[in-house]
Amino acid sequence: MCFIIAPQIRWQYLILFVVIIDYIVNNLCIIANNKANWSTSGSPLRLRAYPSAAGQTIALMPNGASVTVYGAWQGWNTVEYNGNLGYAAEAYIEN
Known about the structure:
By secondary structure, this protein is α+β, with helices and mostly antiparallel strands. It is 17% helix and 38% strand. The chain contains one helix and seven strands; from the N terminus they run αβββββββ. The strands form two sheets. It has a five-stranded antiparallel β-sheet, with no helix packed on it. A two-stranded antiparallel sheet has the order 2-3.
């Protein structure tokens, strides 16, 4: 008779792995199936290529423009405007 003895599981590594995966999943830029129609507020708002004030401007959205918001990340919304997908400052998007 032969027995295969598995090495002892290192629970601390398993817990660390689960915590890391949880952090990644909960901090994604785009949250699938979470879109909503919103509008811009204030002066023309820049739709940017990436979530930073240094991001290239893709489009200028006039005050009150209708946009689709897919999710939020660190003060930036993932937004679709006139077929363009990019990032806009969360403070200037209202429901």
